[in-house]
Design brief:
Layout (H helix, E strand, L loop, with lengths): L5 H10 L7 E7 L5 H13 L5 E6 L11 H6 L9 E6 L7 H15 L4 E7 L3 H7 L4 E6 L4 H8 L8 E4 L7 H13 L10 E3 L8 H16 L3 H32 L1 H11 L5 H13 L12
Parallel strand pairs: 1-4, 1-5, 2-3, 2-4, 5-6, 6-7
Bound molecules: guanosine-5'-triphosphate and magnesium ion.
Magnesium ion binds next to helix 2 and helix 3.
């Protein structure tokens, strides 16, 4: 799958009816907050309950598509010899549909392989992060004292409200201040049927890790009521299909422009102000996707 081998698509097609049994947990947050360490501690906790686990770490900035990234190697090393745990780190190379495709395929195979729980780790806040964890059933945002940018992003509504928030490195004196700050931001939003709980954790010592897991389970129970999980998965899958299709369309477009001197000339003309940008867009869309005027956005309403 990591090499986009055509056989992989056939495998996933055949396995797909067997999927939907695993529960997917997305873990996101700024670099270095302790996402991998927390996953490692959660895995330790969950292995005591004999649950089987998959972990997929996706680094949007890494061109490598195979092998483990150094940090994850160290953080998750405790579990490498455990046959009940499968760990994989990957970048984006080789996937026409980008990150969304890479993660979706990995999740589906681990699901079909019978893993009870699959963790999807990705760094950051932004589009690529949504593509990776958009498929998750429960999203955990990991912050630490000093993650002020993320708190601002939550406040400004730039970052989607996660389902559970972990404030890691709770040994830091500013951890409780941060919790209060995040709590006051979340309290502004009273409409939600689920209020995202905030848990202070210390991943390296495993402190409050069972409590964090309990919150994930509570969120799962909440979703499993009134058909919310079905509804969320329907929405997530539709979003993934769209994201993968968009990723492929973009790759196709880039290749087409690179291969076609006439299309490249259009870009030169835009640069020389001989052609306006939207006319160039229209011509490119017509030539590459055979789409006419209806797609230029100006006369669709
Ligand atoms: N003091 C303290 N250090 C921690 C804690 N959790 C993680 N660390 C340390 O923080 C550093 C980063 O931890 P990682 O688990 O690699 O963080 P990450 O968020 O996965 O990092 P990226 O994947 O690179 O974004 C490591 O040196 C950890 O040992 C904690 O609870 N307390
Ligand atoms: Mg990590």
């Amino acid at each position: 799958m990591e090499n986009s081998d055509p056989l992989a698509y056939e495998v996933v097609r055949d396995l797909y009816p067997e999927t939907g049994k695993a529960y997917a947990i997305g873990v996101t947050g700024p670099p270095g907050v302790g996402k991998s360490s927390l996953i490692s501690a959660l895995v330790r906790h969950l292995r005591e309950q004999d649950r089987t686990i998959g972990v997929v770490s996706v680094d949007p900035s890494s061109p490598f598509s195979q092998g483990a990234l150094l940090g994850d190697r160290i953080r998750l090393a405790d579990h490498f010899l455990d046959p009940g745990v499968f760990i994989r780190s990957m970048g984006t190379r080789g996937h026409l549909g980008g990150l969304a495709e890479a993660t979706l395929q990995a999740l589906l195979v681990l699901d079909a392989a019978g893993k009870d729980l699959v963790f999807l780790e990705t760094v950051g806040a932004g589009q690529s992060e949504v593509e990776v964890i958009g498929i998750a059933d429960t999203i955990v945002l990991v912050l630490m004292p000093g993650s002020g940018d993320s708190v601002q992003a939550l406040k400004a509504g730039i970052m989607e409200i996660p389902d559970v928030i972990a404030i890691n490195k709770m040994d830091h004196p500013a951890a409780k201040t941060m919790r209060n700050e995040v709590r006051s931001i979340l309290s502004l939003d009273r409409e939600r049927s689920w209020k995202p709980p905030i848990v202070l954790t210390e991943a390296t010592r495993g402190e409050n890790v069972p409590e964090l897991w309990e919150k994930v389970e509570e969120h799962r129970a909440h979703l499993e009521q009134e058909g919310r999980l079905e509804e969320r998965r329907r929405k997530n899958l539709a979003g993934e299909v769209f994201a993968v299709a968009s990723g492929r369309a973009k790759a196709h477009l880039q290749q087409a422009v690179a291969d076609d001197p006439e299309l490249r000339r259009l870009l030169d003309e835009v640069q020389k102000r001989e052609l306006d940008p939207l006319t160039a867009v229209r011509e490119i869309m017509e030539k590459v996707f055979h789409l006419g005027d209806a797609t230029d956005g100006t006369n669709t309403r």
